[in-house]
Amino acid sequence: MGDLEEFQQLMERNSGIDGVLSTRIPHLILIRSSNPTEPIHTLHQPAVCFIAQGSKQVMLGDTVQTYDPNRYLTVSVDLPVIGQVIDASTEKPYLCLRLDLDPAMLSALVIEMGSSPSDAGAPGPGLFLSDTTPEMLDAIVRLLRLLDRPDEIAVLAPLAEREILFRLLMGEQGHRLRQIARAESKLTQVNRAIDLIKRDFRKPLRIEDLAARANMGLSSFHQHFKAVTAMSPLQYQKQLRLQEARRLILGQSIDAATAGHHVGYDSPSQFSREYARLFGAPPLRDIARLRAAPSYLLEA
Question: Is residue 28 located within the same domain as residue 172?
C-alpha cells in the first residue's frame, strides 16, 4: 500500500462523519466533507493543511489558490480567507488534515538549523502552496497512525510533528516560515500589528498605533502589511468585525443592528451595506441561507 492510499484510509477511518474533528494529538485536526461547499469565510490561524482526497480553493484578497493531494497549504499568520471545497462526493469525500503551527517548536527548530540569508528578506503572502514530497507524506502517515495507538501519542507525536515542521522549513517555501521564529523579521513585526487589530478590532483603528507596534514607519508598514495579508489594515479590521457579527447573529440569535453595534458600527445601514458586500446578501437573508446549509459551518 502506498503512502497516499494509507493516508486516505487513515483519514476515512478516523474522521467518520462530516465536520471538523479534534483528535487526541495536540494541534491535529481532521476535516471531512461529503459534498462540495459554498464559499466559507473564516479567520484562518497559522497552520499547514494536507489533503488526502478531493480538492479545495482558498481566496486571499484577489488571489485564488487551489490545492489537492499533490500540494499542501501553509498559513503563517492569522488571515481572513474564503475557503471552498470544490471536489467531494459521498463515495470520495474531501479529507483534510490540519496541523496548527506551534511557534515554540518552530523557533527551537530554526535555532538548531541556523539562519540563512533568505530568512531576512521582505515578507511574502502569509498563505502559500508547496508540493507534497514523499518524505512529507511519510511523516504525515506516521503521525496519523498514532491515532490507533493512543498509548504512544505522548512520546511519539511530538517527534512526528517536529519532523513535519522540519520538512516545512526545508521545503521550497521554508524561508517564509523561518521568519515566524525571527523576532526582528518583517513578518513578525506585521504579526504584532495583527495581534493588536485582533485584540481591539471593535475600536476605531489608528494606523500610527499599528505602525508603532510593528516598529515600522507608516509607508513601510503599509507595504509589508499588504504584502503579507493582501489587504490594508482597515480592510483586515472590517473583515474581523463582519465575521464576528455574523457569528453573533448565527450563534446567539442577536438582531443585525445589535450585532453591528457590538463589533463597532454606529450606523446600522453602513453595517448592513458592508455585510452584504462581503457575504453576498444582507444579514437576514445570509443567516437564513447559513442555517439551511450546514456546509457553511465547515472551517476553511
Answer: yes
Residue 28 sits in the same domain as residue 39: yes
pLDDT, residue 2, reads 86
Cell output for 107? 523557533
Strand order in the sheet with 40-44: 40-44, 79-87, 55-60, 63-67
Q: Which cell numbers hold the place of 56?
A: 479545495
Cβ–Cβ < 8 Å for 60, 81: yes
Which has the closest alpha carbon to 193: 214, 163, 169? 214
Helix (H) or strand (E) segment spanning residue 96: strand 94-100
Looking at the 3D structure of the chain, how many domains does it have? 3
**Contact call for residues 19 and 65 (beta carbons, < 8 A):** no
pLDDT of res. 225: 94
Element counts in the chain: helices (H) and strands (E): 12, 10
CA-based nearest residue to 82, from 44, 48, 119: 44
The parts of the chain modelled with pLDDT lower than 70 are 1, 115-122, 183-184, 294-300
Do both 133 and 262 map to the same domain?
no
The x, y and z cell numbers of residue 9, run together, are 484510509
Tell me the pLDDT tens digit for each residue of 200-220.
Answer: 888 888 999 999 999 999 999
**Containing structural domain, residue 247:** 239-297
Q: What is the pLDDT of residues 289-299, one digit of tens each?
A: 888 875 555 55
Q: Report the residue count for the chain.
A: 300
Alpha-carbon distance of 85 to 67, in angstroms, equals: 10
Following CA atoms 125, 85, 46, 292 in sequence, which dihedral angle do they give, to the nearest 10 degrees?
120
The amino acid at 233: P
Q: How far is 249 from 52, CA to CA, in rounded Å?
A: 34
Helix (H) or strand (E) holding 19: strand 19-22
